[in-house]
Design brief:
By secondary structure, the protein is mostly helical. The chain contains nine helices and no strands. 13% of the residues are buried.
Length: 127
C-alpha cells in the first residue's frame, strides 16, 4: 500500500501542512513522521475501510482528491477537522503533540545515569 501512496499526489499533504503554518518538505516529513502516519491512517485508510473490502490504488487516489477538496474549502485546521468529522462520521486525531512535541524531562534516575555516563575524571584532575 505504501508503494502505491508514494506515487500519488502530495497536494493534500502540502495544503494540510500549510494549515499548521508549516512547510511541507522532506525534512519536515522526516521529523514529523507520527503526524503524517496518524493523518494518513485516519483520513485515508480508516475512511476507505468503512466502505471498501479491499483498498486499491484508485480508491486511495480518489480519497486524497476528496481530502484535498476539503482542505481547499477550509480556512483553518479546525475547519478541516469539523468538515472531516461531519463528512466521514469519524473523530479526528489530536495532532498537536506530533507537530509541537513536548520537551521530555528526565526522571531523577535518568538524570543521574546521564551524569554517570558523561563523567570524566580527567577533567577534574586537570582543573
Amino acid at each position: 500500500m505504501i508503494a502505491y501512496q508514494v506515487s500519488l499526489s502530495d497536494g493534500f499533504y502540502d495544503k494540510y501542512t500549510k494549515l499548521w503554518d508549516k512547510t511541507y518538505s522532506f525534512d519536515f516529513v522526516i521529523n514529523h513522521r507520527a503526524f503524517y502516519a496518524q493523518l494518513t491512517k485516519r483520513c485515508v485508510y480508516d475512511v476507505l475501510l468503512q466502505t471498501l473490502e479491499k483498498i486499491s490504488r484508485k480508491a486511495i487516489a480518489k480519497q486524497l482528491a476528496e481530502l484535498e477538496a476539503l482542505v481547499d474549502v477550509s480556512e483553518s485546521k479546525e475547519d478541516f477537522q469539523i468538515f472531516f468529522e461531519k463528512k466521514y462520521k469519524l473523530s479526528f486525531p489530536d495532532l498537536k503533540n506530533c507537530v509541537y512535541p513536548k520537551k521530555k524531562e528526565l526522571s531523577d534516575f535518568d538524570q543521574n545515569l546521564w551524569i554517570a555516563l558523561h563523567y570524566n575524571p580527567r577533567k577534574e584532575r586537570d582543573t
